[in-house]
Recover the amino acids of this structure.
């Protein structure tokens, strides 16, 4: 299965951001991707008050989908690919705090799975950046997997978002549920990214013997945010097999599930677990 990670520099203009997302989905599909992943906050990075206003429903309840979900559905159907909308504001029971939701869309243009970010980023960094995601985001409480099928190949994919990568117990749950691929769409800060991004993603791949797809934000954004980029794909042995450079773009690699099974058979650490 050919998978692509898209790197964006999203701002506070939803229309512009969606146009960029559509553009790179089309480019990746044209290059042969069957599964295209977008980063966290792909549709909007800006003021929390605006994020609340643009939050959408991700399942149809008699009404038309909003522009963000519609863009995912239309792009997936138009290009015949699976698309992961890495993280978007979804309406929650608390109107002041939407979910940060990762939405998986099938080539038929249907919502296949929704994961609501569980671990929320509440930190004060050494560079003076203070982020309190929980003040404006409602946390989810479920681990989510879904089957992605294309051209006769099927892979169970486990969904996560950004800060989740620091909590290995989530990924062990996803593997217990059969995941062979995990997605980590992110808007990793420059401060933490330069030291921890590659290390954490490779660790999750190695310990769980899975492919890791990590599309990311890159560059400067409103409210003084600066993100690290380096969108990448890691194989089950922990090798980085594709990576974006600076700026917007995408990177692509083949997910070889025979190789994954070879890794699991030659180093059967998952079978040696004492706690599940």
């Amino acid at each position: 299965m050919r998978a692509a990670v898209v790197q964006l520099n999203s701002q506070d203009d939803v229309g512009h951001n969606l146009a960029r997302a559509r553009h790179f989905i089309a480019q990746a599909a044209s290059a042969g991707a069957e599964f295209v992943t977008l980063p966290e906050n792909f549709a909007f990075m800006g003021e929390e008050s605006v994020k609340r206003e643009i939050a959408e429903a991700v399942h149809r309840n008699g009404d038309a989908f909003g522009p963000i979900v519609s863009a995912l559905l239309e792009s997936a159907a138009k290009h015949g690919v699976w698309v992961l909308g890495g993280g978007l504001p979804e309406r929650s029971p608390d109107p002041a705090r939407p979910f940060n939701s990762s939405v998986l869309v099938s080539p038929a243009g249907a919502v296949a799975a929704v994961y609501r970010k569980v671990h929320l980023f509440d930190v004060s960094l050494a560079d003076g950046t203070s982020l309190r995601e929980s003040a404006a985001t409602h946390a989810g409480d479920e681990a989510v997997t879904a089957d992605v099928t294309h051209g006769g190949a099927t892979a169970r994919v486990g969904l996560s978002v950004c800060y989740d990568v620091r909590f290995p117990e989530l990924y062990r749950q996803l593997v217990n549920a059969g995941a062979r691929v995990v997605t980590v769409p992110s808007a990793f800060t420059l401060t933490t990214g330069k030291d921890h991004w590659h290390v954490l993603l490779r660790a999750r791949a190695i310990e769980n013997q899975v492919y890791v797809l990590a599309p990311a934000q890159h560059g400067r954004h409103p409210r003084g945010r600066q993100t690290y980029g380096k969108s990448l794909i890691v194989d089950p042995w922990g090798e980085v097999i594709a990576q974006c450079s600076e700026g917007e773009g995408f990177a692509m690699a083949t997910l070889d599930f025979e190789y994954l099974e070879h890794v699991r058979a030659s180093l059967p650490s998952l079978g040696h677990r004492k706690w599940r």
